[in-house]
Design goal:
Distance between the termini: 60 Å
Number of domains: 2
Radius of gyration: 22 Å
Number of helices: 11
Strand order of the largest sheet: 5-2-1-9-21
CATH topology of the largest domain: FAD/NAD(P)-binding domain
CATH architecture of the largest domain: 3-Layer(bba) Sandwich
CATH class of the largest domain: Alpha Beta
Shape: globular
Structural class: alpha/beta
Largest sheet: 5 strands, parallel
Length: about 425
Amino acid sequence: MAQARVVILGGGFAGLVTARHLVKSGVVGKLCEVTIIDVGKAHVYTPWLYEAATGALRGETQMSKAKMLEMCCFGYDRLPGFRHIRFIQNRIESVDLTAKQILLDGKRQIPYDVLVVTLGAEPNYFGIPGLPEHALVLKRLEDAAKIHEAIVRLVDKATAHNPKYITIAGAGPNGVEFVSELANTLRILERREKLETGAIKISLLDPSPELFTILAPSLRKRAIKRLERLGVDLKPGLRVSEVSQGFVKAFTATGKHQDVVQLPADLCVWSAGVKFNSLVGSLPFLKDDRGRIVLENTYMVASHPGVFAAGDCAALVNPHTERADPQSAQVAHYQAHDLAKNIVRYIQGRPLKVAHLPKRWAFFSALGGTVAAGTLGGIKFWGYSAFVLRRLSDLYYFYYLLPPFSALRVWLEGVRLYHKNDR
């Protein structure tokens, strides 16, 4: 009996965990062969990008700066737990669902029996004038390097009499972790007298009238106070309308023209929206109002047997909340683990199981240094205890991705290296 050809589109959290679980379940090489197709040559651990972008701003060696970026990157060809997985680095041109083939750049065709769509999200600029040209995003490894270089240039030039301005647009989890760590690092530089007090001014904009709504109300208040103590100028209720060299224009959420404000911005970091890979948009699948692929409760794409999806591009309704779960690494990891079991059942011709989703997701947000906030099992955590749990979530992922000793080594090295930012 020929092995089923499982092709996974995208090497992010959902794609890699799906493949890893298939390997661990013992079906690869027996019941199926697995291919991952990704435009990059390495998996990027995005939850550490904010550390790499804000660390080693002054007084560190080039080696340290390079190492901080390297710690976020795992080459597909060097992942020891994926020796039986084939990786193809190429751009996907289209998917022929009738012929069951993937067309790659260069006209190469990859046939499949089971298709898994785990393509992640990319920045959404919403047609805002000047935004793509004058703002940076923190999504990929090269983005972290660009932001780091831009911050270093500002730190080198900034003085109390000639301050430089950094504006972060978007107070979602990624924007909050980035701005918190940046502000904390700058305060440390000030205490070391490597930066004049007030030489760098930071603003955080968000169109929502309330910030950090993902946190419980009591934690939200403490998080706001934390950022204010770090010197972040919080500006809720402002929606970016234009970005140019040196400034950001925004208006209040009401959109009234007379409420337009102009903010100085020597550096603008955009963290206020994502859209999905253009390939996702071209696929003839049912989509929700955000462009995500609508799934049945088994992770199978509605009306398309043998086609599955998970992660950022997928909309799987959680029966506990009656809406799709948030786009996060944690959700992608969990979904992929659950999805892989159904892929095995599909290959074996067995009935698929209904997705078993948690009623509450654990959530932790780093708030600079060794401070974090979050909830686990309905219990609220703040400060160092939350920070430890946030770090342990990294270790949990590495243990799933790598052999135990390698996972612990990578995690300890990352914790040691990034802890330099906090001292």
